[in-house]
Amino acid sequence: MNETAPGSPKKPLILTGITASLCLFLVLHIQSTTKNTLTKYLPWIDATAEIKLEATMAHLRLEKLLSGDADAEISKLIQHLEQAEKVTIAVLDGTKTEKRAYHALTDPLLRKHANQLLFQLTSFRNGTLNLLTAAKLSSSDNPINQNYDNNFWNLIQKIDDLEAAIQKHAQIEKETNDSLLLLLLLAIVGMTGISIFAIGRFTHNRANYIRQLSEANRRISEQNTQLLKTSQTDQLTGLPNRQMLLTIAKQILGRVHRQDICMSLTFIDLDFFKPINDEFGHSVGDKVLVSLTKMIKSHLRDGDVLARLAGDEFILLLQENNSDQLERSLEQILGRIKICLENPIVHHPKEIHIRFSAGTSIAPIHSMEFDELLNLADLAMYESKNQGRGQHYFYCADTIKIPEYSIKDSLAPEAATE
Question: If we measure between CA atoms, which residue out of 49, 56, 46, 40 comes closest to residue 159?
């Protein structure tokens, strides 16, 4: 069975998707209804304005004709009346005029107003033609003239009625759309609230899960680091141990082979360290080793390596371009260390002085193998002890002979140290 992390994102994602879909639908619906409303009602409202304009222009031209204005042609008057009728018919039938196309009025009430307007336009046109064909007009209160005025104002009223009815229908449709949008908005708000709650719960659970996982990974990482450190370093001094020393030495020997440089391996052994442990205890002995380690490291350069081999045995690795530089650098470092050791290494429970014997082998002069270099440095160190202790000797095959027994075996951690 597949297991997922606490607070699987599946449900929150579904809710979020639904919410996003509703938002998209809402936007599309707003755009659609706005576009449809403009497309549907604005042309009709514009049509009523055009009809009113054409009727008014016809009325003005008739007034000019009746006042004796020769420029007011009868044909233009008729054109205005015909244009008003064309627009009204186009709105009723859903046809188009020279200026634009119209959708047909489908609402019965709107069609009723449009038909009344068309009838009034016909009456107004007939009244206009009657005035033009009258032989003489004696005054403005002529019955025919008075009838014309009534028809004109009735026509204007019908136009206004149609425009008002169209605007009322547009308002009703807008309110209906607004109500629908409000319902959709409420639904979206509800879904958004549910999504926020679900996502918040998922985020909280996920954060807890990640925190627990991170804590577990941190503990594992610390344990691995500690295990690696324990396996590669000496727990008392923090120096590289025998295993890490072997790794470092092989890397340096690789550079000796590739770059034609030299490496010294110095075996350092404390003189008369066992009596310190016997007299003061191992805690004081450990304090001596730690203090010695700090003091030696303070005189080393970048790239120099100090390691603890076992007990009171230390290994010092140096690198130089040639053997002469290597010998000078090593003697300088060991000389400074010996000067520091003229002072007590610890002061409690009493002042304790120490010294060391050291022996050095050099790669590639003596060997390119770590074990052999270690054995040869050990031989040189024992030669310094034989010559009075507290000295440093370089291995020399002519004066220092390799015994028949294995030096490597004598350097095992459990071997007794003088």
Answer: 49
